[in-house]
Amino acid sequence: MTSPARALLKEHSMTLGYLLLFVVLSFSVENFFSSANIVGLLLSVAQIGMVACTMMLCLASRDFDLSVGSTIAFAGVLGAMVLERTGSVGLAIGGGLMAGALIGAGNGVLIAYLRVNALIATLATMLMVRGLAFIASQGQAVGIADEGFISFGDTAFFGLPLPIWMTAFCFLIFGVLLNHTVFGRNTLAIGGNPEAARLAGVRVERLRVWIFLLQGVVTALAGLILSARITSGQPNAATGFELDVISACVLGGVSLQGGKARIFGVVIGVLIMGTVENVMNLLNVDAFYQYLVRGLILLAAVLLDQLKTRGERRN
Fold this sequence. Notes:
It is found in: Cell membrane. It is a multi-pass membrane protein. Helices cover about 75% and strands about 5% of the residues. It is mainly alpha-helical. The chain is globular. The relative contact order is 0.18.
């Protein structure tokens, strides 16, 4: 095999692997290839896909965010509470998005300006925001009865629910942002070498804050959509969500070392995570075993990233 062919195969190995997996499952698992199941699969990964777009930017800039699951829960609870008190769908959505922006910007300031380690900063935020969700709701689900808000999660266009279209829109927007803007190039630059980027005139701290702010807004949007789908704001929603998002990104070729990301790879990573969970549900695999499999996928994703990094260093 020639070098260009080998390089092409290496670059698209995950895509080819997923296509092979999809074909095998279509023939071996009953109802997997049904239209209802495919739509259900896409709907199940809608929130992961949206948040993976911005997590990709965090990882590419050599950071990460463990607070996304808590932000989803808090935004959903806050949106439901605002809706309950005001009856305004616009205020409910605006309040949730504003909360997400503040949480994200707070993470960015802690990490970029106060030099708090990203693991510690976002772990602390994860606990505090989850606590706020329980305090605000008094530990109870906040019901949603407004049809206008509920339609935010179940309106369909051309046979596909709105959350799927919004996820596709996020992939498109953040793909353009990553590959065709100064913002995207600078994000990869600070992930590859922050000091070199700073010397080249990139305002590293401000850019990191903006990345986390975007992360917060998109995560809050995902939380509002989730609350619309389940018709309630749940303070315990999206527990462990952050690990699924990070797994999807790393499976898609986003390096934990920073400086490397591909939006199409993230799409494939999200689909792999969703397909595995979907198949386990179709096969009635016990939830305890599903946790085991998700953990193995995360470990495999990290090991794959390490192997790729070592191979690139040797070359």
